[in-house]
Specification:
By secondary structure, this protein is α/β, with parallel strands linked by helices. The protein has one domain: Mannitol-specific EII, Chain A. The protein is built from 6 helices and 6 strands, in the order αβααβββββααα.
């Protein structure tokens, strides 16, 4: 399983206005949930995970995630911010791109591998720059697909 298998164009948001991290997590939870009660669980899992340590990847990208889904499904969303935000990133670089992932409550090694590969992919500076230039959700999806293909060719 790869992040490109999970991401969908309708789970991408362009030019999101940032108010706070908690509001950002609310937005992601609403986007990723299928019902209102699930939204609260996703939100809580993102907040709890963030308390363990900042989920920025550095280089302008953050990867908030949490274990919260009852079934074995994994859901992901991408939010491109309207302005760089202070995410308290590990490298102090303002964040412009946020990828949220909701995992099942019970995770396994394939989930860890997905997380590791996703972090590697979204740390790629070329992908980041191309995503910032994308003007539509479809262009963002195509750039992620292209970045994924390039990364797989390196291995």
């Amino acid at each position: 399983m790869k992040i490109i298998d999970i991401l969908e164009v309708d789970m991408m948001v362009m030019n999101h206005h940032f108010i706070s991290k908690k509001r950002l997590f609310e937005t992601m939870a609403n986007l990723l949930s299928e019902e209102s009660s699930e939204s609260l669980e996703i939100y809580r899992s993102f907040v709890e995970r963030e308390k363990l340590g900042n989920t920025s990847l550095g280089n302008g990208v953050a990867l908030p995630h949490g274990k919260c889904l009852q079934d074995s499904e994994i859901r992901a969303c991408v939010i491109k911010m309207s302005q760089p935000i202070d995410y308290e990133a590990v490298d102090d670089v303002p964040v412009k791109l946020v990828l949220g992932i909701a995992f099942p409550l019970k995770t396994n090694t394939k989930h860890q591998v997905l997380m590791k590969e996703t972090a590697f992919l979204f740390r790629q500076h070329r992908l980041y720059k191309n995503l910032l230039l994308a003007e539509t959700k479809e262009q963002m999806y195509e750039e992620i697909l292209r970045g994924f293909q390039l990364c797989n060719n390196w291995s």
